[in-house]
């Protein structure tokens, strides 16, 4: 873009010398020559040295790095600052070193940052002396190794001798708190001036001290946090501290068995704060403890929408499901007792359905993670193959193997030991990326050097050479016109000038060719991005197929896995080709303005034209006039400046070649060292993951079991409700039957034989002799007597006491039935007949 602007500007200036053939153009030529002569002196003076950063350039890059640091781009800032630290001196170096340490500190590379902070704090009385000491103490608090602790003690000793600004007692208080010296910490925090920049932070720490083991003064902590939440924030830091105090106050009230105040404190956390999901999660438990289940459900539903990827989500969902069961039971109890509120629009079955849905969805979401980790624990999968995914180092778009579910990877990252593995792998990835970028830069430099072009390698020197060429281009026209006016008829010069004029403006044509080449490379890059998008779509399809593959039959699953493996191989080849194309694109863009043969020929022709003009001017002697002499002198000055620049470029190229050779060797050494660290990291990381796979597997197992138990609870609660409904229906039925019997008792007793008193069966008379009278069927004593004539035998019982008479059915009553007068009916037994 800068080259195109320069070419556009030159296109306006250059034609002036070639078209000024009119007699009245002499004053314009004179003024132009005066301007060119002054500019020629400037171009030849103060030539910048190649491969050395000027003060102005260093300051500009330092400002760029500070801007990158301010917007949070710590990677870009640290990259620029690292280069500046080795090339600047004086105040700029101190600034660059401090900001480099800060950038590394915010990136999480505290070990490297500690060294640079120490370098800054070694300059006693420097601008960043105190800030560097404070950072060293903070790093010592965060790191727990022996070296960090010793460095923190040394920094704290030096910090004590500095001026007692508010940050000094605050830092000393944090150090005392980290060492468990709580009384000493209270003294330091109380000494921070009220209203100072660190007042809010010191007050928060003071409240935390009173909650620490050994103090446990919740009343005092409540007083401190309450006072802190009433302040008006003066900065974003104060606002953050007040939000933390609000959260701490809710926890303290919960511990003090004051749920209403705890709820009020949690709900005061701003909804836009990143602490709001934490407040919602904790306030939901307070609602549960207070038996405010509806409000707890509202908080849990909102939390589920705000943070759907949180590792606390299973607990949230399980709690929500259990609360749904509890709510269904409460609604049913209210329905039974007739105390259901008119504002309640739900019913037990709806709540049971919601609970069952929650448990089922949670089970289905985390069961694949449990299965994947179960396979790892059982030795079916290699933990080392998943380090790249867990640490985020998988640079390939298309994965060769099915990754573990992201929920499992996320839960593994939450483990402290795995976090250290991830940090190490991230650092190694940064180093590896830097090595690749450095190697790519060296390849680009070697490609440019191989062209042999010296015009565009150093932008500052190249800009001067371009301007020299533009002035020479204009001077050719001016000098040709002046020589013609002086009566010169040199045919060689005229032929060369005519040939040169047919080329137009060589630099402008070069800029146009460069722009066209750049546009072509941009089109190729757009096509490469489309191909990469197609590969990413294939990867998404492969992930979906791998997800549902376990549900397919063995034959179909094996066939699908073979096809995915084949497509993966092709996708990997495409990715490799895309990587090579991108390297060629970068190199092509670098080489677009370099090695232009047309520009080289035009410059050679211009040198011949200038040489012909110089010879012609020498032959004219003094006949060309003062303007011709001035133009020849300017051309000579420009030529000398161009030669000086060319010599500087040559020296710079020799130094660059030497530096490239050294960096090549450095890259070889770095690759070897990184490979050793990679091997060690993979070995330790695999061991750590193997141990943590079981821990996280057990967590998923607990979630799966709890979801199954939740579904069982839903089914059991519904069964208990149905049993209770059946009991109540039976009781109501018995109560209604009793009421009906009581109301219609006289009707039942008059028309219904009591089953307990059946009518005795009369004995069948024995048959008499043939022809005899029915009442004379035997002897005289066998005649049937009228009722009442027989005498009851009281000695022979009708039924034996044990009911085992061979002549008596087992179903016969154990006592002889007695016939009572209908005039005295016996009431039916309670509950109807049995």
Give, in order, the helices and strands: HHHHHHHHHHHHHHHHHHHHHHHHHHHHH
Mean pLDDT: 78
- Main sheet properties: none
The N- and C-terminal alpha carbons lie at a distance of: 107 Å
Low-confidence spans: 1-26, 396-400, 768-834
Please count the beta strands (DSSP E, at least 2 residues each). Answer: 0
Spatial extent as radius of gyration: 50 Å
The portion of residues forming beta strands comes to under 5%
The helix/strand class is mainly alpha
Quaternary class: single chain
Shape, please? elongated
- Total helix count? 29
Helix content: over 70%
Describe this structure in words.
By secondary structure, the protein is mainly α. The protein has 29 helices and no strands. It has helices at 2-13, 15-18, 26-44, 55-70, 74-87, 91-107, 110-121, 129-142, 146-160, 167-178, 182-190, 199-209, 218-229, 236-255, 259-267, 276-289, 293-306, 313-337, 348-377, 387-391, 406-413, 416-450, 459-485, 491-502, 506-548, 554-591, 597-620, 625-743, 745-751. The N and C termini lie far apart (107 Å). 27% of the residues are buried.
What are the key terms here?
single chain; 834 residues; mainly alpha; elongated; disordered N terminus; disordered C terminus
Detail the topology: elements first, then pairings.
Elements: H1 2-13, H2 15-18, H3 26-44, H4 55-70, H5 74-87, H6 91-107, H7 110-121, H8 129-142, H9 146-160, H10 167-178, H11 182-190, H12 199-209, H13 218-229, H14 236-255, H15 259-267, H16 276-289, H17 293-306, H18 313-337, H19 348-377, H20 387-391, H21 406-413, H22 416-450, H23 459-485, H24 491-502, H25 506-548, H26 554-591, H27 597-620, H28 625-743, H29 745-751
Helix pairs in contact: 1-25, 3-23, 3-28, 4-5, 4-6, 5-6, 6-7, 7-8, 8-9, 8-10, 10-11, 10-12, 11-12, 12-13, 13-14, 14-15, 14-16, 15-16, 16-17, 17-18, 18-19, 18-28, 19-28, 22-26, 22-28, 23-27, 23-28, 24-27, 25-26, 25-27, 27-28
